Amino acid sequence: MPRTDTTTLDLTADVVIVGGGPAGTWAALAATAAGADVVLLDKGYCGASGPTASGGTGVWYVAPEPDAREKAMASREGLGGYLADRRWMARVLDQTYENMNRLATEARYPFPIVDGQPFKRGVQGPEYMRRMRAWVKRSGARVLDHSPVLELLVDPSGAVAGVAGYRRQHDTGYRVRAGAVVLASGGCAFLSKALGCDVDTGDGALYAAEAGAELSGMEFSNSYAIAPAFTSVTKTAYYNFATFFHADGTPLAGAASQGGRSVIAGELLRNGTVLCQIDQADPEQQRQMREGQPNFFLTFDRLGINPFTDKFPVTLLLEGTVRGTGGIRVVTDDCATTVPGLYAAGDAATRELICGGFTGGGSHNSAWAMSSGTWAGQGAARFATGLGPARHRRRLAATGGAGLRPTRAVRRGNAERYTGWSDAEQVLREQVHPYDKNYLRHGERLTPALAELDAAWRQLRAETAATGAAAVRIRQTAAMVAHARWMYTSALARTESRGMARRQDHPRLDPAQRHRISVGGLDSLWTRPEPEPAEAGQRLTAVAS
Amino acid sequence: MIEIVSASRCVTCDVCIAVCPTNVFDRGADGVPVIARQGDCQTCFMCEAHCPADALFVAPLTHPAPPGSPLTDEQHVTETGLLGSYRKEIGWGRGRKPGARVAIGPQLGRARVTPPATPPAETTSTPAPLKT
Ligand SMILES: Cc1cc2nc3c(=O)[nH]c(=O)nc-3n(C[C@H](O)[C@H](O)[C@H](O)COP(=O)(O)OP(=O)(O)OC[C@H]3O[C@@H](n4cnc5c(N)ncnc54)[C@H](O)[C@@H]3O)c2cc1C
Ligand code: SF4
Ligand code: SF4
Q1: Residue A387 C-alpha to ligand 3 middle, in angstroms?
Q2: Nearest to A22 by CA among A507, A439, A349
Q3: Span from the CA of A191 to the centroid of ligand 2 (angstroms)
Q4: What's this model's pTM, rounded to 2 decimal places?
Q5: In 3D, which of A503, A496, A490 has the Cα closest to residue A437?
Q6: Is the CB of B58 within 6 Å of ligand 2?
Q7: Exposure string for A124-158, b = 16+ CB within 10 A, e = fewer
Q8: What is the pLDDT of residues A10-64, one digit of tens each?
């Protein structure tokens, strides 16, 4: 493996956090609280970057009363195809409860008061994330914005020992030596322009795989969200009050925000237009919606549409693994991956543990982000401390492949002019975004799509060597292509319909496939049914009794 | 996408250059930010929320507004109250009440499923075209 170049900025930390969304900021707080020296790096800006910052989230906040908790856990087990784990659900409910209460007391988040009590089942995005940034800075963590991580660095044993990246507003490279790394870089929404999601290109999953980590649940990656046509606001909750129509204004029977979104996709494929009117909300509910989510109305107000009385065209934007479920596989209670020194949190990690094969966001993701972030931060701090002073004396080797270190010789001059990423981005647009390939899935369409993606990967892997700003773009493209290949490989391996992974050629649930699917590899991919931990069945009964 | 930087309102604080998650702005020679990479704009409205001078306007479209669109006209968005409206709604800025204090929203029940047409067909209003 090649040694890394010397770079302008050379930092040292106990724990490096990649990404400053909810998962990364809670990880930073937990790691500093454990005494670690923390550097948090964000591709964009910690506090404004990612879908939580721009969108806001409902939160799976449930009081610790046995009945309420039982109901919360049971509510989505079926939707998720019974792949979730009650022990993890209970842990997340406990941790989320604690974190939300701390958000009120320590970050002074201004929760609404309902019946004399703070209402903690949701957060407004800009307010939540600006407070998280301020809190992280107060904790003593160093925050570097506009500093996308480009790859992981490992020590001779293969343990993760740092990161390398690029400061795009300074046009310099950087390197951070560290005892442990937390990947909190979000999911992958394939640059669809879904609200706040273009920073989420699956970078963490690529870096993890390059260091030898595995993924899980990647077949549950086909989340599409409703937005008014040609706009970005993919906030779907209020479409619960909507009626959908054909282009001629007749009702589109069976269409719904939940449980009828595929009808919308089908009509968009056939005829290109679906109209919508939020006509089921009474005036009081309409008023509550405006207060609840002002950003939902930005599109309408600025385009002169009254969503309650006008019919407006809608589209479905790909949110991939952001509101899907798959991600890096975690193997311990503190969200360690299979690679020593590497931890994963939030949407970068699989959320199957608490929602099985279905999330759609819907409160679970935000709860997972803050809980897994907390555990990963604690775990990484413990791991780094355990290494002792030797942690900063290790020889570092770079792990980045596609886009950085081609397998075939590339003349420098060629690399500068290289435009292969736009070819690959075109392949992504044609093979991943279309509803008939990724959403309404069929083996006969998945297989050729995967072949195209494999070809795009081979080219990226063999021939590209970018530096600086170009490296950021090419690594994003490589991450998206890798992501799509894991998605389709897992989707083909699941020959049934479970959770959000539905197959037109295998429309039924197959009880024999009630297991998670691990996936991995870069040049050649593999899948494997994940063995249920032996004690899982016992745990289930223990929690339920 | 971001369409307007009001040179007359901007106080050259660089906040938008810092907070934009996709690094759309560069600092102009006069200190007023320029929209350097509009194609990278993800239409997230964060720059608007953070601008202390209500100097930015994000059109709610995922493509550039067509030439002559009112959404690129500073006078239009000022007169219609759209400039600075997001910041006002989330209650940011001196003397305002944080919008988070009232962000509750209606009870969400099960999603409505569109029923089949009931004969005789209801009269339907004509669809509103997207004004760009
Ligand atoms: C419109 C919308 C509404 C949603 N509503 C809900 C809801 O109501 N309830 C719910 O539970 N969930 C909801 N979700 C999902 C929720 O937003 C996510 O689960 C949550 O944001 C995940 O947090 P995260 O910290 O893991 O990732 P993100 O919030 O995506 O943050 C990732 C961060 O990593 C940074 N990053 C990415 N790549 C790199 C890199 N290479 N180097 C450095 N930094 C990098 C990004 O800039 C970003 O700041 C919604 C999602 C969307 C899109
Ligand atoms: S945030 Fe507003 S005032 Fe500050 S530089 Fe940007 S446009 Fe100007
Ligand atoms: S809307 Fe978002 S992406 Fe676009 S310029 Fe503003 S902050 Fe940047």
Answers
A1: 41
A2: A349
A3: 26
A4: 0.95
A5: A503
A6: no
A7: bbbbbbbbbbebbeebebebbbbbbbbbbbbbeee
A8: 999 999 999 999 999 999 999 999 999 999 999 999 999 999 999 999 999 999 9
CA A425 from centre of chain:
19
List all residues of chain A from 223 to 282 with a beta carbon under 8 Å from chain B: 228-233, 237, 239-245, 247, 249-260, 275, 280-281
A123 has a chain B CB within 8 A of its CB: yes
A190 compared with A530, residue with greater pLDDT: A190
CA proximity to A25, closest of A129, A168, A160, A110: A129
What is the 3-class SS of A410-435, one letter each residue? Answer: CCHHHHHHCCHHHHHHHHHHHHCCCH
**Residue A223, H or E segment:** strand A223-228
Rounded to whole angstroms, how far apart are CA atoms A400 and A408? 15
- The sheet with strand A243-245 has its strands ordered as A223-228, A312-320, A275-277, A243-245
Six-digit token string for A309: 């009385």
Judge contact between A29 and A46, C-beta under 8 A. Answer: no
C-alpha distances in angstroms, A278 versus A236, A308, A339, B86?
11, 5, 48, 21
CA distance A391 to A385: 8
d(CA A55, CA A129): 11
- Give the one of A113, A233, A288 whose C-beta lies nearest to B106's C-beta: A288
Residues with Cβ within 8 Å of A154's Cβ and at least 6 positions away in sequence, in order, are: A1, A160, A161, A211, A396, A397, A399
Q: What are the residues whose beta carbons fall under 8 Å from the beta carbon of A301, sequence distance 6 or more? A: B82, B85
- Selected residues 55-74 of chain A with any CB under 8 Å from a CB in chain B: 56
Convert the pLDDT of each residue in A390-407 to its tens digit. 888 999 999 999 999 988
